[in-house]
Amino acid sequence: MSGNPSERETRIRDYIDGRLSGDELEAFEMALFHDPVLLDDVEATRALQRGLRELATQPVIGQVAPKPAPAQRLLPMAAAAFLLGAALPGALLWRFATSTSGGKVQIVSVETFRSGPEQPVAPTYAIDAGVDRVVLEFGALSVTGTDEFTIELRRGDAIVHREHALKPDADLLRIDVSADRLGAGDYVARIVARSPQGGETEYANAPFAVKR
Fold first, then answer.
1. Each residue of 185-206: pLDDT tens digit?
2. Domains in the chain and their CATH numbers?
3. Beta-carbon neighbour count of residue 204 at 10 Å?
4. CA 211, CA 2: separation in Å to the nearest integer?
5. Strand pairing of 124-126 and 133-139?
6. Bridge pairing between strands 148-155 and 172-178
7. At what angle do helices 7-16 and 22-34 cross, to 10 degrees?
8. CB 30 within 8 A of CB 144
């Protein structure tokens, strides 16, 4: 196996690093919108780079490190999973998730993972007692030709919550849900990209579980 990156890998890195412009950038983003495999590759590369950057900030042996936050403890495991996914074709791409709360609002940050035909194990989140609202955050990728996103939150066959006309903010999509509507159980967030012409493309499905 050659150690040199393929032309596809090079273009993905050029796109992520902002080295594409003009017609090249527009053509690549249009390809992202129509090619789910390419979209998966871009997301995997971004996640790997992010994980490696976070690992690079960890203290070296011998340094006294501050007590890590829950999300920080997961970074080495996440980066290892990214590397494993890059080495093993068809391996699942795992992304760590975090949950924080303050006042009567709890923020649950779920970086959606895209996988092959196998279904990943859904993460479980505990909704704190006394919380009135839960803000769910999902990773998103801005794509040329996409006007907005719709997120549909389902529990079994029932639609618990739906929001339209969502636009990414710092590569995140957010929905605000009443805590009373998030009882214990299994959920799936269906994320759909909508074009200005009205066409829809399923962007991702994010399964997760809630415990109370």
1. 999 998 888 877 777 877 777 8
2. 1-93 (no CATH), 95-212 (2.60.40.10)
3. 24
4. 47
5. unpaired
6. unpaired
7. 110
8. yes
